[in-house]
Amino acid sequence: MPNFTVGEIKSKNIFLFAASLSFLEVALLSSLSFLWATTSLDRNFWIFLLFALVTGIFGFLSKRFVRTDREFSAAQIFQVITLNFFILTLLCSLIYIAADVRSTFDGALLEAVSGLTTTSLTNISPESLGKSILFFRSASQWMGGLGALILVFVALPAAGRSEEFDVSFAKSITSQTVSKTLHRLAKFYCILTLFIGGAFLIAGMTFFESLCHAFSAVSTGGFSTRNASIAGFDSAAIEWVVAASMIFSAMNIVILWWIWKRKFRLVAKNSELQFFALLVVVCTLLFGVWIRNSGSFEEVSRDSFFLVASLLSTTGFFTVHWEFPSAMTGIVLLLLGTGAMAGSTGGGYGSGRLLQHYHFARRELTQQLKPNSVRVVKVSGRVIDERALQRLHGFTAIYIALVAIGALCIALANSAASPVEALSLSLTALATAGPFVGSGLETSGIDFNAATNIMVSILMLIGRLSIFPVAYLGVALLRTFREGPIRKVRYQRIRR
Predict the structure, then answer these.
(1) Structural domain of residue 393, as residue ranges?
(2) Which of 301, 307, 399, 384 is nearest to 350 (CA)?
(3) What is the pTM of this model?
(4) How many domains does the chain fold into?
(5) For residue 385, what is the DSSP state?
């Protein structure tokens, strides 16, 4: 029997655990998608059946070799989540290639990453796909949204990063045991999905369309069953319901829980919710002023509210092409970059982080006027410690750098793209939002070639994983490489 060090056993255990989760998740997705292919018995029927069987068998076999006698540390939890996303992405890419949805790996990679990171970046015509593939796309977004909640409510608290959300406020969801927290999250997430799906069904969607759009809406994913997205339904009622569902999905899931429990007084104390509501109201009024001549008051109000909901929630559903005047483009990019509340399935920089920056700036200005004053940064009545503020500034610098690097790489890969298009696509990918400014137009300079697909996929993965889990995995891989091959090379040099 080979001798393994403790570090090697832990690494193998982490990889096997992540692999078993990935195989079982793909088996579940494939099995459910297979049910929608039973009526047609086409190529997708056999593909989903094959993947369901193979991944299910591998998932159960790999799970038997996982050591469960010790708890994972915070760094190891991050590694499991990151590896899980990477393996899921690879397996979903293979499904898209096998189903002939994409003919190249980079195209299949973009489609798979768009689904699992809850981003609606795609250049596939949904109406050309069968029901099983449409369901698979939306279900992958639903699973990605659940993974985002697990990252916030399980992994981040384990790492001691409680500044991401109010711990005392989230006690109704979180628990001392990981299993209970996962059970509560999954249960309430399913309830929200059923509620939103029922609202879509009442508004006029078919059962299949309401199911797919509910998966995409609750996860802030944005995949639709129609080429024109929500505009394809040509229904004011559906647009109002979808816009409202995007707003609810962009809110902290704990706030939704307290609304369900009718704890309105506790909800009203949340500063981030107040700030988020202010953004919705102000930006809806601003967009309404710009498009006031495009229709009746009801149409202008609906279009403005829908656009704000889509941008702030980073869902990506649309009713019009994203082409705006220059001043409006600036506000669109700011909202797109801001994103949803902490503790939601939405992406972006985060309205909570932006609120912390505001309070920090106000404190610094106050201390400039009153140098002897002692002030702290508070959000929702909770004091943010200085170490958390330092991490916030570090995250901001990394976020801006990633947007800039992404925009540069996209511009180099697309010589005909304008600076706004390159910046918008980079920001959209990192915020896991969806359409970019100018998307859907024949004059767009973005050509989704191999370099663009890979760059955008990397940005989406980093954005969905909130940067730090990827950093944890990178550090772990570097340490493993340094303690493995590099140490052997050094040892051989010493012996010589």
Answers:
(1) 351-461
(2) 399
(3) 0.87
(4) 1
(5) P
